[in-house]
Amino acid sequence: MGDEDEDEGCAVELQITEANLTGHEEKVGVENFQLLKVTLLGVCTSLL
Questions:
Q1: For position 20, what pLDDT does the model report?
Q2: Which secondary structure element, helix H or strand E, spans residue 38, and what is its range?
Q3: What residue ranges of the chain have pLDDT lower than 50?
Q4: Distances (CA, A) of 26 to 9, 11, 17, 42
Q5: Could you tell me the pTM of the whole model?
Q6: How far apart, in whole angstroms, are the C-alpha atoms of residue 15 and residue 17?
Q7: Which residues of 2-35 are buried (b: 16+ CB within 10 A; e: fewer)?
Q8: Cβ contacts of residue 26 below 8 Å, gap of 6+?
């Protein structure tokens, strides 16, 4: 924003700690990870 000569970027930092509240051992599949990645990219793009 502001100066047109300045490169603007979008950085998302996600820190996941142990958050399994169900007590069941669940694993995140590659499909869900890809969906999360695409969703975050869409949010980042819409902010520009």
A1: 66
A2: helix 30-47
A3: 1-3
A4: 34, 28, 14, 26
A5: 0.36
A6: 7
A7: eeeeeeeeeeeeeeeeeeeeeeeeeeeeeeeeee
A8: 20
Please state, in angstroms and as integers, the Cα–Cα distance from residue 19 to each residue in 3, 4, 5, 16, 23, following that order: 41, 41, 42, 8, 10
Q: Which two tokens stand for residue 18?
A: 């142990």
Query: At 29, which amino acid appears?
Result: G
Of all residues in the chain, what percent carry a pLDDT higher than 70?
65
Tokens of 39: 């969703």
Is 47:10 a contact under the CB 8 Å cutoff?
yes
Any idea how long the chain is?
Answer: 48
